[in-house]
Design brief:
Distance between the termini: 67 Å
Strand order of the largest sheet: 1-2
Number of helices: 2
Helix content: 40-55%
Number of strands: 2
Radius of gyration: 21 Å
Largest sheet: 2 strands, antiparallel
């Protein structure tokens, strides 16, 4: 006797949420670019800054140059 057991998962809601998040992140990035904002993250434990190329250019640093 053979049995087949299956599971169906509807991922529609998750896919929609991911798409909405992606669109929101794109709008935020565009607004920051247009507004001249240069967001960054500071890791207090390592005392390092992670930032985009615009932030580095603002401070005369090469793209990808580490800031501490």
């Amino acid at each position: 006797r053979r049995q087949l057991i299956g599971v169906t998962i509807d991922a529609t809601q998750r896919i929609r949420a991911e798409a909405a998040l992606s669109e929101s992140e794109e709008r935020l990035q565009r607004a920051q670019e247009l507004g001249g904002a240069h967001p960054f993250e500071w890791d207090a434990r390592a005392d390092t800054v992670v930032a985009g190329p615009g932030f580095n250019a603002l401070y005369g640093l090469a793209p990808g140059e580490r800031i501490n």
